[in-house]
Structure formats: structure tokens, C-alpha cells
Design brief:
By secondary structure, this protein is of the alpha+beta class. It has one domain (about 30-145). The chain contains two helices and six strands; from the N terminus they run H-E-E-E-H-E-E-E. A six-stranded antiparallel sheet has the order 1-2-3-6-5-4. It is elongated and about 70 Å long.
């Protein structure tokens, strides 16, 4: 009888721990912004329409955004050296890192360096399509190579 209770208690603990782990990994700390916003890029300001963005203060790498901008708005920015979109949480459906990566490799999208070393060690990357759709994320730069 005590073995059964111990097993039930252990399984209950594991279930609660797993639920907490999933919550903290995919939902906690994120804040979401929707609407229109301005993105300061060097001396220019680019208007982002239909912005859907998530970010967190716990890590610069948690930034993901989907938006629409004027076609060619980012053309004056330097090309990103090695654009690697990071996977977004499953509930943030507009950001498909696999599709963005495939489109960048096939030339259907172009990646630009919107801000280098901001914050220190991280680059802000923007991938744009000819129709004005865009995606934004941060990734580690050469400072944290390896």
C-alpha cells in the first residue's frame, strides 16, 4: 500500500514539474506587442505595420517579430552575414523559422543587419520579402562565437 502511494506521489510531482517546465520555457516572461510601431535603424526610422512582436527581459534572444513595411524600406541596410532565425514558441504562429531559413537560402527573402552589437554581443536581424512582409529576431554575433 505504501509503495502505491509513493508512486502516485512521485508521478504527481513529475506531472507538476513538467507542467511548470513547459510554462517557463514557452509562456513565462514573454510580453507581446501588436499594432504599428517605428523601428529606429541608424539615422532612419522605418514604420512597421501589423506588427506582432514577442520579447522578454530575461534574454535578448527571445525577440521575434512579424510585420509589414514598405517594400525596399530596408534596402539601404547592410546584408546580414549569417542570418539564422531562431525557433519561436509554438503559440507564436506568424514566425516560422524553418520557412524563413529556406526562403533566405533560396533567395526569396533578404536578410539585413538592422543593428549590430545591440545589446552587446547580439545583432538585430530583419528578413524582408519583396511584397513587404518582414520578420525580425536577435542572434548571437561573432563576440560569442563558439
Amino acid at each position: 500500500m505504501s509503495g502505491r502511494r509513493l508512486m502516485i506521489a512521485l508521478l504527481a510531482f513529475v506531472a507538476v514539474f513538467a507542467a511548470a517546465l513547459v510554462w517557463f520555457q514557452f509562456f513565462a516572461y514573454y510580453s507581446r506587442h501588436r499594432g504599428d510601431a517605428d523601428l529606429a535603424v541608424g539615422a532612419a526610422t522605418i514604420r512597421l505595420r501589423d506588427l506582432d512582436q514577442i520579447d522578454a527581459t530575461s534574454s535578448p534572444l527571445k525577440l521575434r517579430a512579424c510585420f509589414v513595411a514598405d517594400a525596399g524600406a530596408f534596402d539601404d541596410l547592410p546584408a546580414a552575414a549569417d542570418p539564422t532565425p531562431l525557433v519561436a514558441p509554438p503559440w507564436f504562429g506568424c514566425f516560422d523559422a524553418g520557412q524563413i531559413t529556406a526562403d533566405l537560402a533560396a533567395g526569396r527573402a533578404t536578410a539585413h543587419l538592422a543593428a549590430g552589437d545591440n545589446p552587446s554581443g547580439f545583432d538585430l536581424i530583419v528578413a524582408t520579402y519583396p511584397d513587404g512582409r518582414g520578420f525580425m529576431w536577435r542572434q548571437l554575433n561573432d563576440r560569442f562565437a563558439e
